[in-house]
Each structure stands twice: as C-alpha cells, then as structure tokens.
Fold:
Amino acid sequence: MSHRRQPRRYRLVDQHGQPHPELDQDFESLEEAWDFATQWWNTIGGLGASSRANSPIGLGVEVSTENGHWRTLRHPQG
Structure:
C-alpha cells in the first residue's frame, strides 16, 4: 500500500488568523502566496499610496499539513 503525499497548499489569512475574505484561494508555494499578497497590498489593500511601501502587511500565510489541518508559517503583521 503506497501513501501518496498530498502537495502542500498555502493560503493567506487575515489579522485574526482566518482565511482572508478577499484573498481566499490556495497557492502552490509560499513565495507565490506572499507575492500575491504583496501585489494586492500595493494596489488595493494599503493605507495610502505614499505610506504603503513602509507599512506592514496585515496578512499571514498558512500551509496545509498531511492530516488536513493548517499551520501558520508567517503571522499577520499590522
């Protein structure tokens, strides 16, 4: 009997550790998730055009585990 490992999935979470309401989708890598979050923050989610670059992103990243749970990789900052 072979155990097939499920590929890891990554998701963005809000400041409360819940799946982000606007960015709730799965990503194939941590880098892909964080790049997507950064792009969103710089175009839509930031405070203002001049302050965005230096302000913390209020998003975190979680990774799926083999037993179907989620584990935090990057805590939301903000």
Q: What stands out?
A: The longest strand covers residues 60-64. The longest helix spans residues 30-45. The mean pLDDT is 82.
